[in-house]
Amino acid sequence: MFVLAAAAVILALALVVARAVKGPTVFDRVLAGNSVGMLAILLLAILGFLTGRPEFLDIGLTYGLLNLIGTLAILKFFRHGDLAHDPNG
Amino acid sequence: MTQFLIDIASWVFIGIGSFFVVAGAIAILRMPDVFTRIHGASVIDTAGAGFLILGMMLQVGFSLVLLKLVFILAVFLFTLPVAAHALAQAVLHEGIKPQLVEDRSASAQGDGRQP
């Protein structure tokens, strides 16, 4: 059954990457990148259960925290053209 | 017997989660607009990941792995709606408007590419 879940996640990854390649605006690509990161965490967890090594969950936790930072940094860069934008000045 | 029932519940949850993950990915690929694609991504984030991790939680029982799964689910439920909200706000700030029902006849031939 974990094989079915891994196959579903890999299929979803393929569809989302197709949207990232196709996406008309940069926001479609940011959205697809965020979803790819999320699905990668799920795939890491499932792979840990498949191989009997749940240590992969630590990597998934770290990657989940980095995913938000990356998405917000990309959005801020495309909104202000600068990562060190000061809203007051 | 109890272990058997827990196994069955776990497989049912993992099956539902797999369905929602694939459905959300199809929505991301096929929806006509950036905002509706964000909706598809949110389906993956909440329903797909939630049911999959719930199924895994039922598999492991009480251990450290369960705590890690709870943390991963909490990270998902806290960070991914924030990312979706920031993305929608950035899209609106860029000047892209959502496709509405009344102008569907005017832009039905487009592929969601708004100026």
Low-confidence stretches of chain A: none
| Oligomeric state | heterodimer
Beta-strand segment tally of chain B: 0
* Mean pLDDT over all positions of chain A: 88
For the report, how would you describe the main beta sheet of chain B? none
The span between the termini of chain A is 55 Å
Q: Radius of gyration of chain B, Cα only, in angstroms?
A: 18 Å
How many strands of chain A? 0
Summarize the helices and strands and which ones pair or pack:
The complex is a heterodimer of chains A (89) and B (115).
Chain A: H1 2-22, H2 26-51, H3 56-80
Chain B: H1 2-30, H2 34-60, H3 64-94
Helix pairs in contact in B: 1-2, 2-3
Notes on the protein architecture:
The complex is a heterodimer of chains A (89) and B (115). Chain A has helices at residues 2-22, 26-51, 56-80. The N and C termini of chain A lie far apart (55 Å). By secondary structure, chain A is mostly helical. In chain A, helix 1 packs antiparallel against helix 2 and helix 2 packs antiparallel against helix 3 (56-80). In chain B, helix 1 (2-30) runs antiparallel to helix 2 (34-60) and helix 2 (34-60) runs antiparallel to helix 3. Chain B is elongated. With 115 residues, chain B is mainly α. The chains are: A mainly alpha (89), B mainly alpha (115). Chains A and B meet through helix 1, helix 2 and helix 3 of A and helix 1, helix 2 and helix 3 of B.
